[in-house]
User: What shape does this take?
Amino acid sequence: MLSSSTRIFVAGHRGMVGTALVRSLRQAGFVNILTRTHSHLDLTNQQDVRLFLQNEKIDIVVLAAAKVGGIHANNTYPADFIATNLQ
Assistant: This one.
């Protein structure tokens, strides 16, 4: 059961979806919303992510993070974006 004190980690909180999600969670009364920038937590590093989740005692993870590019980058390197985002 969710409570207002549930510890929620939102990965990708600076993106369009993540920003809206954090705002909605706060409006719904959740007070333990944790976020980290890429410079503070590399989501492609399993060991770092595991330690973060254990140390912070995260209850729920919401993954709104992704590597993105503009139209040119997406057209030029589509497989790179897909591979990175599936890690």
User: Anything to note?
Assistant: DSSP finds four helices and three strands in the chain.
